[in-house]
TrEMBL record:
It is found in: Endomembrane system. It comes from the Bacteria. This is EamA family transporter. The chain crosses the membrane at residues 32-51, 58-77, 89-109, 116-135, 147-164, 176-194, 206-225, 232-252. PANTHER family: EAMA DOMAIN-CONTAINING PROTEIN (PTHR32322:SF2), INNER MEMBRANE TRANSPORTER (PTHR32322). Belongs to the EamA transporter family. It is a multi-pass membrane protein. Keywords: Membrane, Transmembrane, Transmembrane helix. Its main location: membrane. Residues 2-132, 147-274 form the EamA domain. Gene3D superfamilies: 1.10.3730.20. Signal peptide: none annotated. Pfam families: EamA.
Length: 276
């Protein structure tokens, strides 16, 4: 069940990233959409917790959840800025490498036993995530120092985020408490950036849809980390780029390159090896 939950997270995140890609093509602000989806997701999870009386926050859950929300929002913003400073062909694969941090933490800090075959499967999936996103020949002027700084900030944000999510499951903090704090913290952080934006009604609508997708995705994510092996969950979730690539073929008439096909096959092989 936990692997199925991780795959659901992969699909959810891939769908959200596809929507972000579509919205950028149509001239919408990623910051505005993020602000609306965080705010709406916060109201949804808070309302559900109050109605069901399932919300029992404490200082640790509030701190961890808010920090995760801020890191996720900041990672997305830094990634967008990195795309503006350098080529997408290098930016996406480099940022995708952030999964190595929570994977190593699962083994070194949380003492998960990872067999050699599972390590091979994990490396296959992580390598696939980087290969699938590689786009040779993409144009872009490199403003080197700002580009590297943005990439480092994005990698650290996403990498630390994964470790903190595993920490919350290790401390047996309920997913609902984490979700409310996460969306609340992210909303406050994004409000600072949102002041510079001019909101559009369609951004509110897109943000609402992404909020629903995000709540489902992160709920499955926390469940997978609580009940499964984090060292496998993180690489599986990193394959959300596969969903974006396949959706791009349908929505934007993009063509799969041969190396991307090999990347997809490698990802499937990795999934199989992690279950042996």
């Amino acid at each position: 069940m936990w692997l199925l939950a991780a795959l659901m997270t992969t699909i959810s995140f891939g769908l959200s990233n596809t929507i972000f890609k579509w919205s950028t093509v149509h001239g919408m602000s990623k910051v505005s959409i993020q602000f609306f989806f965080y705010s709406i997701a916060f109201l949804l999870t808070l309302g559900y917790g109050v109605v069901t009386q399932a919300l029992h926050p404490n200082l640790i859950s509030i701190f961890l959840g808010a920090l995760i929300g801020i890191l996720n929002a900041n990672g997305n913003i830094q990634m967008s800025r990195a795309f503006e400073k350098g080529p997408a062909s290098l930016t996406s694969p480099l940022i995708a490498a952030n999964a190595i941090f929570p994977v190593l933490a699962a083994g070194l800090i949380f003492h998960e036993h990872i067999s050699l075959i599972q390590w091979i499967g994990i490396l296959c999936m992580m390598g696939s995530a980087m290969v699938i996103q590689y786009t040779p020949g993409s144009k872009g002027n490199i403003n080197y120092v700002p580009w590297i700084v943005r990439i480092m900030l994005a990698v650290l944000s996403f990498g630390i985020l994964g470790i903190l999510m595993k920490t919350s499951s290790y401390l047996h903090i309920t997913p609902l408490d984490m979700l409310v704090a996460m969306y609340g913290g992210g909303s406050i952080y994004l409000a600072v950036w949102f002041r510079k934006e001019k909101a559009q009604l369609r951004e509110v609508k897109i943000g609402t849809f992404v909020a629903l997708s995000s709540v489902v995705g992160f709920s499955c994510y926390f469940y997978a980390l609580r009940t499964g092996m984090a060292s496998i969950v993180f690489p599986v979730v990193s394959l959300n780029c596969l969903v974006v690539v396949l959706a791009g073929c349908y929505m934007f008439k993009e063509r799969l390159r041969m190396y991307q096909v090999f990347g997809i096959l490698s990802a499937l092989l990795g999934l199989i090896l992690t279950k042996i």
